[in-house]
Amino acid sequence: MSNMQEIDLAECTLRDANSQLQGEDVTGAWVIRNPRGRHALAVGLTAPVDVLVDGQAGYYAAGMNQRANVTINGNAGPGVAENMMSGRVHVSGNASMAAGATGHGGLLVIDGDAGARCGISMKGIDIVVRGSVGHMSAFMAQSGTLVVCGEAGEALGDSLYEAKLFVRGDVKSLGADCEEKEMTPQDLAHLQSLLDRAGITEYPADSFRLYGSARRLYHFHVDNAAAY
Amino acid sequence: MCGIVGLFLKNPALQPELGLLTAQMLRVMTERGPDSAGFAVYGGARHGQTKITVRGLVPSDMAAFEKGLLACAGTGVTFLSRDDHTVITVPTEHEKAVRQFIAAFGHGVSFVASGDSIELYKGVGLPEDVATRFNLAGMSGTHAIGHTRMATESAVTTAGAHPFSTGPDQCLVHNGSLSNHNTLRRQLVREGLTFETENDSEVAAGYLSWRLSRGERLDEALTASLADLDGFYTFVVGTRDGFAVLRDPVACKPAVMAETDDYVAFASEYRAFAQLPGIGNATVFEPEPQRVYHWEHA
Amino acid sequence: MTDNSKKIPRTKPRFSATFDPFTISEIQRAAATGIYDIRGAGTKRKLPHFDDLLFLGASISRYPLEGYRERCDTDVVLGTRFARKPIRLKTPVTIAGMSFGALSAQAKEALGRGASAVGTSTTTGDGGMTPEERGHSSILVYQYLPSRYGMNPDDLRRADAIEVVVGQGAKPGGGGMLLGQKISSRVAKMRDLPEGIDQRSACRHPDWTGPDDLEIKIEELREITNWEKPIYLKIGASRPYYDVSLAVKAGADVVVLDGMQGGTAATQEVFIEHVGLPILSAIRSAVQALQDLGMHRKVQLIVSGGIRSGADMAKALALGADAVAIGTAALVALGDQSPDLAEEYARLGTVPGAYDDWQDGRDPAGITTQDPELAARLDPVLGGRRIANYLSVMTMEAQAIARACGKSHLHNLEPEDMVALTMEAAAMTRIPLAGTEWYPGKGSF
C-alpha cells in the first residue's frame, strides 16, 4: 500500500507505537519498522486496521487482538496472538511456543513452523500452520480449530475438550484423551474454508486427518485416574 | 531465570569478531537477567599450554602472586588481566602446581576456569557493563557462551553468576530452575566434587563434569542428565571444540537457534540474533525437548 | 454369675492417635472410591497463627489515642510503583478472588455491594468477570489466571487492577478443579466448556514460566491497558522471600501473598492440608525481601489466608503488610456455616461450622452453588449489608488496637508493638517471646 503510515521503533518507544494503533478510531494501514524482536508489539488493538510488523517480533505480538489484521514479516516469539478475540494475525516465518494460546476467536496463520504448545487452551480461535507444530500442541484446547499442514510433535491434543485438530503429516503421538475421528462432510468443508482463508492451495482438504476428544476425561472415572 | 547466548563460528574469518558479536547478543538479553552476567570465550589454544582464569587479584597483591607463580611454574608463565579477572597461561605440566598455589594464595583470589582454550569472565551488574569491564567486544576466538542472570533462589554474587566451569574447558549456562539439585549436590560431593555456591546450575555443571571425567562423551552425559536432573532447564554447554544444547522434556524455557554456513547461534530470544551477519538467510529453529544438539570443530 | 461379670473392669475402646477416626474414615473412603478427597475451604489443622501474637498497647512510655475521637486513619493506596491510576481503598481489607462458578452470581454481587459500601475492592476469579460484579463493585480487581477462562481485553480494560495469579495459598503449585455439578450453562458458556463436565485447569500459565518471562507478560498487560492499571501478582506462600523478590524484579506493583489457611473452591484434601506455609510464617520474609530491595511500601503487600478479625488485620499490618484480603471469612459473613441451616447440613452429612463440600454445588446457604433455587436463597442486598457490616467491624477493631498503641494510622503499627506467645510464633516472625527480648535465632544459644 502506498499510503502506509509508518512507525519506526528506532525512533519511538513501544508505548508510542502501540498507543498510535490502539484507539477505536484508528484507520488505514500501518507499518512498524525496526521491530528487532521487541515484545508486546501491536497488542490490544481494537480497530480493523492493517498493521505490518516489518521484521522479527518478540513475545506476545498482536496479543489479545480484536478486529485488526496484523502481519509479521519475520519470526514471532512466544505467545503470538495470545488470547486473540477476532481479526487476523499472519506470521510469515516461524512462531515460537504457545502460538495462539487461549485465543477466543479470529484467524492465526503461520507460514513456517510453530513451536511447542501451539494453540494451548484455545477457546475458539482458528489456527492454520503451514509447517509443523511442536509438542503438547492443543493441550487442553477447548474449542476452535488447529490446522497443521506439516507434522505434529508429541502428545498432540492432550486433555482436549471440543477443539478440532486437522493434521496432514505424521503425529508423533497423541496426548491423553485425544483420538482420530471420522471426517464428516461438514468437517471437510470447514477445513477447506480455513485453508482458503489462509491462502493454502497446495494441500487438498482430504489429505488431512481429524483428531478430537475421546471425552473419556469429562467425568472422573477411577480407571482413567492415571490420565489426569 | 535468565538469558542465554551462544555463538559457534564455522567460518574462521569471523573469529576476530566473536567477542563483538557475543557482546551484542548479551546486551539484548539484559531484561532477562539484569543481576549479573558472564561469558566464556574459547580460542587461542597452544600445544603444551594451559590457560587458567582467576578472579579477585588486586594490584597490591600482584607482585606476591607473580613471585609465587614463578616459583611453581618457572618463566614460561604469562598474564593478562582484565578488570578483576586474570588469565594465566602456564606450561601444562605445571598446571597442577599452579592450581594448588592459587587455591592456597588467599587474599580473595579464586579459581574460575582452566583448559586449553577457555577464558571465563563474570561479574555482578548489567550485562553491558560486565561486557565492557572485560572488553568482551575486543576478544576473538572460535566460540563463546554468555549468560545474563535474574537470580531466583541463590545470591546475587560474582560466584553465583554463570557460566559455571567444573572441568577442563567445560562450562555451562542454564535458564530454568532445577528441583532436585540439593540431593544431587550431596551425591556429587560424596563423589569428591566441590561446589562454590548454592546455585542449582553449578550442580548441573558439576554433574556433567563428573560424567565426562568417567569417560563419557558429552552427548552421553547430557542424555544421562535427562534422567537425573529434574525441573526446567535449557542448558548450553561449552567444550574446547564446540557447544551443545539441551532442553528438559517440558521445554518451557525459551530457546532458539540460527544456523548459516558461517556460524551456529543460540539465544533465549530471536532478537539477540538481530545484529548477526547474514541472519536474514539463516535457518532458524527451536531446539526440541530432550534432544542433544551438538556442534564441534573438526 | 452375672454379678461377678459386672465386677470385671472393662478397658474403654481406645482410638489411635495415628489412625484416628478421621484417618480411618478417609482410608475407607479412598478404598471404596479410588479417588482422593476433594473439598473446599482451607486447611483445618491447627497452625501457628496470629492468635500467637499479642499487642503491647500503650501505658506510660507510650501514649494511647482516644477511641472514636482522635484520628486513626485507615486508607491505603495500592499500585503506586508504575500504574498511572493507583487504587485507593478506604480500609486495608479487601475481598480476595473467588470465581463466579465457585460462587453464585448472587454471592458475587453481595461481595461487590459490601466492599463498595465501605470503599474497598473485590476480586474476580477463575471464570471471568460478570456484569453483576462489575456493576456492583466500585473497585474491581480482575484476575489473570492460567486457564484464562473468560479472559478478554474489554474486561481487562474495564477492571481497576489486574491480578496475575501464580498460585494460591491452599495449593501453591496446583491447578484448579471445578466439578461438573457446578458447570451450569452460564458458567460453561463463560469458560467455553461443555456443560456439566469436570473442569480441569492448569497449574502453570500457558505462555510464560518463570520471572524472566513474567516480566514480559506484565509489560504486555500494561501495554494493553495503557499503563493505567496496577498489576498485582498473587502467590501462594511457599518460598516467600524469593518469590516476592522475583515479583518485584518482574515489575509487579502489588504482591498478594496467600497463606495455606486460604480457602479454595475445590482441591485435594492432601494439597490443602500438606502444602504451603501458614501465613504467619510467610509475612516476615516477604517484608524482608521488600526491605532488602528498598521496595517496602513502594510495592504494596497484601496478605491473606485465615484473616478473621480486626486483630488479625492489625497484626498483619504490624508485620509489614499494607493490606489484608479475606475470602472464607466473607463467605461466613454472607451466611455460610449458619446454625439456621443445621438440618440441611445434616442431610449433607455435616454440621454448621464444618461444611466444606463447596465443590458439590449443594450449598444450603446459596453461596457456593450454581443451583438456581439454592442461589436464590441469598439476597444480594442483604448479603451486601452483612459484608459491609463485617468489614466495618474489622476496620473498627483494627483502629481500636492501633489507637491503643498510639497510632494515628494503621500503617504505623510495627513489629515492635507485639510480643509472641509461643516459641514457634517467635521463631517465625522474629518477634520476641512475651516477657523476653529474645526470639529463636537471635544471639547465640
Structure report:
The complex is a heterotrimer of chains A (228), B (298) and C (445). Helix content of chain A is 10%, strand content 22%. Chain A is built from 2 helices and 11 strands, in the order βαβββββββββαβ. In chain A, strands 1-2-3-4-5-6-7-8-9-11-10 form an 11-stranded mixed sheet, with helices on one face. A 7-stranded antiparallel sheet of chain B has the order 7-2-8-1-13-12-14, covered by helices on one side. With 298 residues, chain B is of the alpha+beta class. Chain B is 27% helix and 31% strand. In chain B, strand 12 and strand 13 (263-267) form a beta hairpin. In chain B, helix 2 (59-73) packs antiparallel against helix 3 (95-105). Chain C is of the alpha/beta class and 445 residues long. Chain C has helices at 2-7, 21-33, 105-117, 131-136, 153-158, 185-191, 211-224, 240-250, 269-274, 279-292, 310-318, 328-334, 342-347, 372-375, 380-404, 423-429, and strands at residues 38-39, 53-55, 76-78, 87-89, 93-95, 122-123, 140-144, 161-165, 176-178, 199-201, 231-236, 254-258, 267-268, 300-304, 323-326, 418-420. Chain A binds chain C through residues 14-15, 18-19, 22, 39-40, 43-44, 46, 58-60, 63-64, 66, 78-79, 82-83, 85, 97-98, 101-102, 104, 117, 120-121, 123-124, 139-140, 142-143, 159, 161-162, 217-220, 222, 225, 228, and chain C through 33-35, 147-148, 151-154, 156, 180, 191-194, 197-198, 200, 202, 206-208, 213, 216-217, 219-220, 223-227. Chain B: Pfam families: GATase_6. Chain B: It comes from Komagataeibacter saccharivorans. Chain B: One of its GO terms (molecular function) is amidophosphoribosyltransferase activity. Chain B: Its EC number is 2.4.2.14.
